[in-house]
Design goal:
- About 35% of the residues lie in helices and about 30% in strands.
- By secondary structure, the chain is an alpha/beta fold.
- The protein has a single domain, classed as 2-Layer Sandwich (Endonuclease, Chain A).
- The protein has a 7-stranded mixed sheet, sandwiched between helices.
- The longest helix has 17 residues.
- It is globular, with a radius of gyration of 18 Å.
- The protein starts with a helix and ends with a helix.
């Protein structure tokens, strides 16, 4: 029988987004911004293009899938969320949980498989996963009930990352059932009212998951699944498919 890490990898491998691209429309920002956006998605299955479109607002980003526009965001919001910041914004301050910081052209890239590198190989790629983690946590906080599960590799990240700890404090004060998972290298204080799960198998060491299963089926389910494939190198995706989210929930319950 497949172990937890293998089952999570299967979730990632079955993701298959359609052909899609991010198109910057009527850009007035300087060239380095366009290059930075292109660099952020370099080597990914998302093309970055540019177009001038009459009777359309300047400095907009469109997510185009199979020839149709499925989401739009201001270039400024994309810059603020994942171009002109680093992951410390989300780790050191709770502001990253606010959903306004997650532009829809990024959050709607669900079912896209990303292969990402962290610092120092890349200063921006891994930030996409951090942004989506906060987006899912923000959705759970807004709803306030259901189940949220998150794997941290090491529980000590709740101790060293003040912004992350503050996010989970806020989550624990709702009616959510909050579960955190990681290698047992730090004692989660009783004041942080979460259910702690500790272990040392590959699922604990290699996975980065944030799963929200709401209390009502009509509310959007969400889950991020990523696996470390090398030193600070990741393959991952996120999904809003309720059936897939429930499968991820089962893997975390049964395999951790």
């Amino acid at each position: 029988m497949a172990n937890a890490a293998e089952r999570l990898r299967a979730i990632v491998e079955e993701s298959d987004a359609s052909e899609q691209s991010l198109v910057v429309v009527n850009r007035t920002e300087v060239d380095p911004i366009q290059r930075l956006l292109a660099t952020t998605f370099d080597e990914q299955s998302v093309d970055v293009a540019e177009a001038d479109v009459p009777n359309t607002e300047d400095d907009m980003v469109l997510l185009v899938r199979d020839g149709e526009i499925v989401a739009s965001s201001s270039l400024q919001s994309v810059m603020d969320a994942c171009l002109l910041v680093n992951s410390d914004l989300y780790r050191s301050g709770a502001g990253g949980i606010e959903r306004s910081r997650a532009p829809s052209v990024i959050t709607e890239l669900d079912e896209t498989v990303f292969e990402l590198r962290g610092f120092p190989a890349s200063a921006k790629e891994k930030l996409i996963l951090v942004l989506i983690s906060r987006f899912i946590e923000g959705g759970a906080l807004d709803h306030g009930s259901g189940v949220l599960r998150a794997t941290f590799q090491k529980l000590s990240r709740l101790g060293t990352e003040s912004g992350t700890r503050e996010v989970y404090r806020r989550l624990s004060e709702t009616d959510l059932e909050v579960h955190v998972y990681g290698v047992d290298d730090w004692t989660v204080p009783a004041a942080l009212d979460v259910e702690t799960h500790a272990g040392s198998h590959r699922g604990y060491r290699d996975s980065w998951c944030v799963m929200f299963r709401p209390s009502e089926d009509a509310v959007r389910h969400a889950a991020l699944v990523a696996l470390e494939t090398g030193p600070n190198e990741w393959v991952g995706t996120w999904t809003y498919d309720a059936g897939k989210v429930r499968r991820i929930d089962e893997i975390l319950v049964d395999g951790f």
